[in-house]
Design goal:
Chain lengths: 262, 208
């Protein structure tokens, strides 16, 4: 009887153990990004200094041409010839040869680009995922190879900056060609820009008049005075880039990766 | 017999008059095709959106339900004390400036940023406070994701602050009856003549 009880207890703890790990076990191709804090580069006068980012899963690499091909095969309305102009401009999937052909085989593992925000969003929904938020993305991208917060790692900052200083390559290399960061994620820097869910919250201009403090901080000259990190040029560039986007835009070096709630 | 002929002639005349008055939106649907199967949306029509919204009357509707009339749209939130009342005043100026041929033929649409607090009741109270005619003004609340999407389509940027206020850009958009953007103005207290002209063009194009 006692032995039986022990077995039951052991089984119960085993079951509990699997349940607990299942909750935080990332789905294939994703990594767990633990909860943390993110200090937005630009803040309104009333905004908090830091935003809490809850733990979430994020694709380890950006979505590739091969993966996106599966999506358009399953969803004809997202094929190049069929997409509605409202949801993607005329350069949508421009680098592909035709609807179901992204070109040379060695591009299969290259990140898909020339995709609009709507297309990225639809892909994520198809995978039962979502686009990461700006806060999630920036928080994740602040990690250097060895630290969750790479802000005080001059070498890391230099490397990131070096990519922003380079012209974009016409043929993008495969994903995960370089090392991962602290969270086990690849290519947050150095390959393509990435869509975020709330790109249209970046740089509010012509805003509600009660918040003109925000406006002042968004422009050049002494613009950086209001930010929390005056040396973080790549973050400025990302903000500027996001704020210049429209949801139907497609760009040759703009891709995306998907996130998922725990 | 004479009387019968007279009635026939009268009927024919009436029919012809009715045909003339019919807006072009509906004429395309005649000729065998019933209005139950309207023409597909154009590539740039906002009416392609599937999102479902709550109106101030508590009705659920898709943007496509507004098809057929030109729309003047802005996004706002009821607790906004500064920019939104000006934006809505600007829209009222557009309404007041409409030539008689356009009166009652243009819809005005306000979509809230504040999914949480701008419930249909709150929107109704706001409509009354602002004295907006329910016949021509529609106020909508939606899911945050759908609000974000519509904002993205209209090129409106917005951000919620910790106090629950929204910083936002002030954009008034004119849609033609097919749901395509034909005019936008970015800012407050602007001249409304271009918006009215854009509205006139949409109507004239339709009746051509």
């Amino acid at each position: 009887m006692r032995a039986l009880r022990n077995i039951v207890a052991a089984l119960a703890s085993l079951a509990l153990g699997t349940m607990a790990s299942a909750a935080s076990q990332p789905p294939p191709g994703m990594a767990l990004v633990p909860a943390g804090r993110y200090a937005p580069l630009f803040r309104g006068e009333k905004d908090p200094k830091e935003v809490v980012v809850n733990a979430f899963f994020l694709d380890v690499v950006p979505v590739t041409n091969a993966e996106y091909l599966e999506f358009v095969k399953a969803n004809p309305k997202w094929r190049r010839s069929q997409v509605k102009r409202l949801f993607a401009d005329e350069n949508y999937l421009k680098s592909w040869i035709q609807d179901l052909d992204f070109g040379a085989a060695n591009l299969s593992n290259a990140p898909v680009t020339h995709v609009s925000w709507f297309a990225a969003k639809a892909y994520c929904a198809w995978k039962s995922k979502r686009l990461p938020t700006t806060a999630e993305w920036e928080y994740t991208a602040a990690a250097s190879p060895h630290r969750a917060d790479g802000a005080n790692d001059p070498q890391f900052k230099q490397q990131v900056l070096a990519w922003y200083a380079q012209p974009a390559l016409s043929n993008l290399p495969p994903v995960a060609s370089r090392g991962s960061n602290y969270f086990g994620l690849y290519d947050l820097h150095g390959l393509v820009w990435e869509w975020v869910a709330d790109f249209n919250t970046a740089m509010v201009t012509g805003d509600a008049r009660g918040d003109t403090g925000l406006d002042r901080k968004l422009f050049c000259g002494s613009g950086s005075e209001g930010t929390n990190d005056r040396d973080n040029y790549p973050a400025y560039m990302r903000y500027a880039f996001r704020s210049s986007l429209k949801a139907a835009y497609t760009v040759h070096n703009l891709g995306f990766r998907a996130a998922k709630d725990l | 017999m004479k009387k019968f002929l007279f009635i026939l002639a009268l009927q024919a005349a009436l029919l012809a008059a009715a045909e003339e008055k019919k807006p072009a939106c509906c004429i395309t649907n005649t000729g065998g095709v019933s209005s139950a199967s309207p023409a597909p949306f154009t590539d740039k029509s906002l009416y392609q959106l599937d999102s479902i919204w709550n109106s101030a009357e508590g009705r659920k509707l898709k943007l496509a339900d507004l098809r057929g009339k030109p729309q003047v749209i802005t996004m706002f939130f009821a607790r906004c004390e500064l920019a939104c009342p000006v934006l809505i005043h600007d829209m009222k100026r557009i309404e007041a400036g409409l030539p008689s041929e356009l009166r009652g033929k243009v819809d005005f649409l306000l979509v809230s940023f504040d999914s949480e607090r701008d419930t249909p009741e709150a929107l109704r109270a706001y409509r009354e406070r602002q004295e907006l005619d329910p016949a021509t003004w529609t106020l909508l609340q939606g899911r945050p994701d759908d609000v974000l999407e519509l904002g993205a389509l209209l090129g409106i940027k917005f951000k919620k602050d910790p106090q629950g206020q929204f910083a936002h850009s002030n954009v008034i958009t004119v849609l033609n009856p097919a749901g395509e953007i034909v005019h936008q103005q970015n800012g407050l207290n602007l001249d409304v003549a271009p918006a009215i002209e854009a509205l006139q063009n949409t109507i004239h194009k339709v009746t051509q």
